[in-house]
Amino acid sequence: MLAKRIIPCLDVKDGRVVKGKQFIHLRDAGDPVELAMFYNEEGADELVFLDISASSEGRNTMVNVVRSVASQLNIPFTVGGGIHSLENIKALLRAGADKVSLNSSAVKTPELITAGSDFFGRQCIVCAIDAKFDKDSGFYRVYIHGGQKRTEWDAIEWAKKAVSLGAGEILLTSMDRDGEKNGFELNLTRKISESVDVPVIASGGAGKLSDFSDVFIRGEADAALAASVFHYKETSVKQVKAYLKQEGVAIR
Amino acid sequence: MIGILDYGMGNLYSLSQALKRLGQPYIISDDPEKLDQTDGLILPGVGAFKDAMAALNKKNHVSFLSRYIQKKPLLGICLGMQLLFEESEEGEPTRGLAFLPGRVVRFSGISPKTGERYKVPHMGWNTLDFKKADSPLLKGLQPDYAYFVHSYFAMTYDPSVLIATTDYHEQVPAIVGRGRVFGTQFHPEKSGNFGQALLKNYLLFVNGSKNPVPPAQLSVDQEGR
Predict the structure, then answer these.
(1) How many Cα neighbours within 13 Å face the side chain of A100?
(2) Which is nearest to A1 in space by CA: B155, B146, B140?
(3) How high is the mean pLDDT of chain A?
(4) Where are the alpha helices (DSSP H) in B59-109?
(5) Quick check: B47 contacting A, CB < 8 Å?
(6) Which residue, A149, A250, B144, B170, could crosslink A145 as a Cys pair with Cβ 3.0–4.6 Å?
């Protein structure tokens, strides 16, 4: 049976993992390879590296980070952040990333989704969507540039559009839930999961163990992504998976 | 020496690094003359069936592979595994290498059992069901999860080529083989410790198939950490 996936997300700035301070037993908690191997040992099904470098030099180091990670890690990983061109996509995939995730650039230049998916196959192209509920309009609105710029897109419509353009997976982050540790956004996750025929990764809001079973059972997510709860050791991948198994969720 | 056939389809870095971690010398090449010197081949591949066959035909790789498998082992991975079959319906029907009997078809997206819609691609970790536990590829292994990413799968009328299957609304061939030709639909280089052990089994098979077998050549087993 196809297992639900647990995906830790690592923020990388200028080639170093940030938020890794709690890993006191690691020799170098800022080393992407060490953290990747740690999560692999813990039973992570996949990893996401999000490049949050502000400078182009910082971004260029990401290709080297990807290459080092790929030389050691034997599970799949996705790279996102600051990918603007087919050249960026090619460089990252050739360096050993399994997928790239496009966010703002996908909204601004939707043809990038198609170009990427034509070149390497749709399974390599993840469309990341940051969404926030808009009370006035009554829909979940898509934001870009790290949540700073609102767009006119309804998240469900954008997800459908992205898939029709060639995205092979949707990474949905709820801005309302992100950082709140109060549970994933189940309603939107389920609606998107029902609207597209590709896998949906839910992100934003992971706190307690039951949040994970909720997002799989009630939110119909195919994968759940979390950052802080894992980095700050509030829970571990191992613990989450043991809990899900007990709850009858298919888990590797 | 293992050869990875580079015919321009997809990323070979992760695979080559997996061989490196296993202490296995390898070459990546598109030159049949160089590849002919190897003891076993890996045919990787990501992308479309038709493009892959066109690329293989362009450099006479089809006839090279047909000759190669008369003497030495071949492992196809993902699209490389699908190419081993007779035909694919991806795009317009395209003839494959026809080393194994069967046809590559798309997941319908509608469960034949329940009539419900399901997601395509089949993406993620799925359990294997061993059909031929005595295959050299499965030596010492227990059924485990493997990492799949694909929208097409091989349908075969000859169950004797099925070494392991997985269930994704259809019975999906996960490991196939006949004689010295093998294929995995999943990515062993991305399938954790199980995938690594399976690759190692293939390398042992390759190195054991060499005739005669100098004992020193089997050191992969010790270096395999």
Answers:
(1) 35
(2) B146
(3) 93
(4) 61-68, 79-82
(5) yes
(6) A149
User: So what's the pLDDT on residue B215?
Assistant: 47
Nearest to B46 by CA among B6, B106, B89: B6
Q: Which of B120, B150, B190 sits opposite A98 (nearest CB)?
A: B190
Task: Tell me the C-alpha distance between B87 and B104, whole Å.
Answer: 6
How many independent structural domains does chain B possess? Answer: 1
The partner residues of A144 in beta bridges, in order of sequence, read: A149
Q: Is the dihedral of CA B92, B95, B97, B103 positive or negative?
A: positive
Pairing of strands A47-51, A99-102: unpaired
User: Which residue segment(s) compose the domain that B77 sits in?
Assistant: 2-223
CA distance B159 to B131: 9
pLDDT at A245 over 50: yes
Number of H helices and number of E strands within chain A? 10, 11
The span from the CA of A35 to the CA of A14, in Å, is: 16
Q: What is the ipTM of this complex?
A: 0.93
Question: Which chain B residues contact residue A199 at CB under 8 A?
Answer: 119, 121, 123-124
Residues whose CB falls within 8 Å of the CB of residue B31, separated by 6 or more in sequence, listed in order: none
| CB within 8 Å: A75 and B145 | no
The reply to whether omega before B136 is within 30° of 0 (cis) is no
Percent of chain B with pLDDT over 90: 85
Helix residue spans in A49-168 (DSSP H):
56-72, 86-94, 104-108, 111-120, 155-165
Query: How far is the C-alpha of A40 from the C-alpha of A29, rounded, in Å?
Result: 15
Please count the CA atoms within 13 angstroms of the CA of A28 that sit on its side-chain side: 8
Q: What is the pLDDT of residues B135-162, one digit of tens each?
A: 999 999 999 999 999 999 999 999 999 9
CA–CA separation, A201 and A172 (whole Å)? 6
How many CA atoms within 13 Å lie on the side-chain side of B194?
19
Structure tokens at A70: 């790929």
State yes or no: pLDDT of A210 exceeds 70: yes
Instruction: Give pLDDT tens digits for A118-152.
Output: 888 889 999 999 999 999 999 999 999 988 999 99
Interchain CB contact of A76 with B (< 8 Å): yes
Task: Report the C-alpha gap between A6 and A212 in whole angstroms.
Answer: 9
For A7-30, the pLDDT digits (tens) are 999 999 989 998 654 555 666 778
Which one-letter amino acid corresponds to residue A115?
A
Amino acid A242: pLDDT = 98
Report yes or no: B185 at the A interface, CB cutoff 8 Å. no
CATH 1.20.1440.80 fits A5-246, yes or no: no
Instruction: Test A98 with B196 for CB contact under 8 angstroms.
Output: no
Please give the single-letter amino acid code of residue A232.
Y
